[in-house]
Amino acid sequence: MLAGEYRVICNPNPRVGSGPPGPPGFYEQILSDPKGKEVSNTGSFMLGYKDITWSLLADGTYADSAATPGAINYLQEYSIVINEVSYAGSIGVCDKKSWVELYNKGTTDVDLIGMSLERDNCNSETYTFGSTVIMAGKYHVICNPNPSKWLGPCPPSFDRQILSDPGGKEVSNTGYFPPQFGDITWSLLADGTYADSAATPGSVNRCQENPLDEFYYSGKKQFRTCKWLSNLKNKNKQRICKKKVDWMNKIGPAEVVCQETCKSCAICYQQNRSRFYYENTFGQPKYSTCGKLEGKWRKEDICKSFISDKTNGIPYSLRACPQTCLKKADYNGKDELC
Question: Whole-model pTM?
């Protein structure tokens, strides 16, 4: 069996002899190695009902549960979290309709079949997943999963998004958040809490950092980790965060990869040296810096593009330069956010 794979064995222990089945009672299933040493034991359980199985739980015990052959058990802990929510919609995503992003933080692929997304406001419909696999470490964006049953727009109020397993048990909950505006989303942070942040559909949120993640430092193959950076003296740390802004093989600089250490995760953080991608001309990617974006005559169109560089991984302008790009879409539509 491959790592993380499930295997179903049909009728592994057929009855010996003829006649009616034995009387209802307690049973036990045991897995042993070639030498007869016990590897796994379900403990005693009673004769089950149709489509009900004796299933392994996340804590290592067993209990009755709905059958899930070839997939994760319903009562096991899921590695799926709600990573980002946009009820106001975003430019270039889902035709500006609402969207929810899920993230598989685990090491195995997960099928969302039977799971559901619920919006706890606005008399919204519940979205139930068909067979939808999120690979380990990947993101999945769902467009307008909970359309409102209101005849008009949802009234402004606090809201929350809930992800539940097929049995209705809560898997992930964003907590309540205020009305949104523009390209601002309710985003999962590194510490497991949520906060307003610039939209990053399909990629890591701002303010998330893994100590073992590598950033591009200098030279052709010189990469360092966020842990290494955090252990430097403050003067050297800030020098790297502010001046080392190049990318290599889709690995970003410290200010992008190590946002907690560089203190670069604030929603309006940017620096003039930060680079962004804005178009491809005759097969050649075009880049610029935040310092030059303000003076570009196509600034508005550039800020609306959510296309990242496929060659080096350099981000689009909104992610690199939110201070320049973000506008507060309030009722007047005029005030700047940053």
Answer: 0.52
Where does the pLDDT of residue 229 fall: very low under 50, low under 70, confident under 90, or very high at 90 and above?
Answer: very high
49 phi/psi in degrees, rounded to 5: -105, 170
pLDDT surpasses 90 at 240: yes
Instruction: State the pLDDT confidence band at 156, using cuts at 50, 70 and 90.
Output: low
Query: Which H, E and C letters describe 97-117, residue by residue?
Result: CCEEEEEECCCCCEECCCCEE
3-state percent breakdown (helix, strand, coil) of the chain, nearest 5: 15, 30, 60
Whose tokens are 């997304």? That residue is: 117
User: What is the DSSP-derived secondary structure letter of residue 293?
Assistant: H
Residue 50, SS3 per DSSP:
coil
What residues have CB less than 8 Å from 108, skipping those under 6 apart?
A: 3, 4, 79, 136
Task: Name the phi and psi angles at 234, rounded to 5.
Answer: -55, -40
CA angle 164, 73, 146 (to 5 degrees): 20
Scan for tokens 């880049």, then name that residue.
287
